[in-house]
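Try this one yourself first.
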């Protein structure tokens, strides 16, 4: 046992040296990996800020709230819907939204109320909420082009350009009020991203 003590001690020292070398290699390796990551982060942040600024500019350039009479209901609207439209026209979007949201799904004006609810949310810079309301609208509605145009603008403002592009492409191909604008916006997206 006494004879094995120096051997054990030297083997323990060798093991500690190897562990220390291994730690040094790991630390150097982590440094080699960390340096590119640390260099990449500011570039990624700048790139994100640039795209975010471009998204905001495109949104501001192409967004305008629709007038309350952009599409006439085919039946006489009820009192709540009329009051909501009046609030919308007066740019009282919070109150208009409250009224539009009170319109029941069974109501003939529900689809339009959902659309205006989306616009009210856009006016209050709540794009996610706008998209929820737009999602409640039948894709075969009379105002399908208006719906897709505003959905694409929400996606652009949120920085989800890949969701906006197919909607804009569809608008560009169809003959509607947004065909030219959709083509122009697609060109700007292509040139900036």
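Now uncover the answer:
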């Amino acid at each position: 046992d006494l004879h094995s003590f120096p051997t054990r001690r030297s083997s323990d020292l060798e093991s500690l040296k190897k562990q220390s070398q291994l730690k040094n290699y790991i630390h150097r390796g982590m440094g080699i990996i960390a340096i590119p990551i640390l260099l990449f982060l500011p570039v990624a942040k700048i790139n994100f800020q640039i795209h975010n600024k471009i998204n905001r500019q495109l949104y501001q350039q192409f967004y305008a709230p629709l007038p309350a009479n952009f599409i006439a209901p085919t039946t006489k609207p009820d009192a709540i819907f009329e009051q909501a439209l009046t609030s919308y026209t007066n740019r009282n979007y919070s109150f208009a939204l409250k009224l539009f949201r009170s319109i029941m799904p069974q109501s003939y004006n529900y689809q339009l109320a959902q659309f205006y609810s989306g616009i009210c949310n856009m006016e209050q810079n709540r794009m996610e909420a706008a998209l929820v309301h737009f999602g409640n609208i039948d894709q075969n509605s009379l105002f399908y082009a208006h719906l897709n145009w505003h959905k694409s603008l929400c996606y652009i403002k949120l920085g989800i350009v890949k969701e906006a592009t197919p909607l804009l492409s569809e608008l560009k191909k169809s003959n509607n009020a947004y065909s030219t604008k959709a083509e122009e916006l697609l060109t700007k997206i292509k040139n900036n991203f």
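Discussion: Residues 40-49 have pLDDT under 50 and may be disordered. Residues 55 and 156 are 6 Å apart (CA to CA).
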